[in-house]
Amino acid sequence: MAAAARSFIIPLGIFQGRPGIEEAIELIRLGEDLQVDRSGMVAGGHDVDIADLLVQISSAVVFLELLKRP
């Protein structure tokens, strides 16, 4: 998760239960979204990156939740 998020802090927060997946994606993409607002979205580029990030973070969160079950 740290590699996908390019951060250690956000995945650590996810592991602690805060932020949720959607909020984490927004935090991870904050800089890129600012650039998209200035320059525009590249079809087939930014949207694919968002989908890939969502899959990577969501799958890691599901895996962590499965580990918590008895």
UniProtKB/TrEMBL annotation:
GO terms for cellular component: mitochondrion. InterPro entries: ATP12_ATP_synth-F1-assembly, ATP12_ortho_dom_sf. One of its GO terms (biological process) is mitochondrial proton-transporting ATP synthase complex assembly. It comes from the Eukaryota. Coiled coil: none annotated. This is Putative ATP synthase mitochondrial F1 complex assembly factor 2. It comes from Cocos nucifera (Coconut palm).
